[in-house]
Amino acid sequence: MDGPPEHIALVMLNGLQGPITVHGEIYEGAAVMPGIKHNPEITDRDINDIISFLKNGFTSKPVWFNLKESVITKLREETADRKEMFTEEELKAWPID
């Protein structure tokens, strides 16, 4: 949870597939994590609240964290036409403002 919160938002919205690296160790997932951007019951505020909970509760450094809801909305708009899930490489390459 120490990475950019935008990456968490992109994964929540679009999903994640392929191997991921955690603390230098590569994990090959047996399944993919689907995105939730097409679920009308989950709002950008809900996603923001989940990210805030994760970042505040599971970071290596205790810090109060809050991502602006407008960032989630922007990421949702930027990936509206995206059909495939993100890979770790794509997340690392995503430009963070």
Descriptive account of the structure:
This protein has 4 helices and 4 strands, in the order αββββααα. The protein has helices at 5-14, 44-57, 69-78, 88-93, and strands at residues 15-16, 20-22, 25-27, 33-34. The strands form 2 sheets. It has a two-stranded antiparallel sheet with strand order 1-4. Helix 1 packs across helix 2 (44-57), helix 1 crosses helix 3 (69-78) and helix 2 (44-57) packs across helix 3 (69-78). The longest helix is centred in the middle third of the chain and has 14 residues, at 44-57.
> Which runs of at least 5 residues are low in confidence (pLDDT < 50)?
none
Tally of separate helices? 4
Radius of gyration: 13 Å
Q: Which class do the helix and strand fractions yield?
A: alpha+beta
- The 3D shape can be described as globular
Helix content estimate: 40-55%
- Strand content of the residues, in percent? 5-15%
Which strand order spans the largest sheet, edge to edge or round the barrel? 1-4
Name a few traits of the molecule.
97 residues, alpha+beta, two-stranded antiparallel ribbon, 4 helices, 10% strand
Concise account of the structure shown:
The chain is α+β, with helices and mostly antiparallel strands and 97 residues long. The chain has helices spanning 5-14, 44-57, 69-78, 88-93, and strands at 15-16, 20-22, 25-27, 33-34.
